[in-house]
Amino acid sequence: MMTSVDTELIRVLGDPLRLQIVTLLAKEALCTTHLVEETGARQTNLSNHLRVLREAGVVETEPCGRFTYYKLRPDVIASLAGQFTDLAESARTAADNKRSCP
Question: What is the pLDDT of residues 3-32, one digit of tens each?
Answer without folding.
Answer: 567 888 999 999 999 999 999 999 999 999
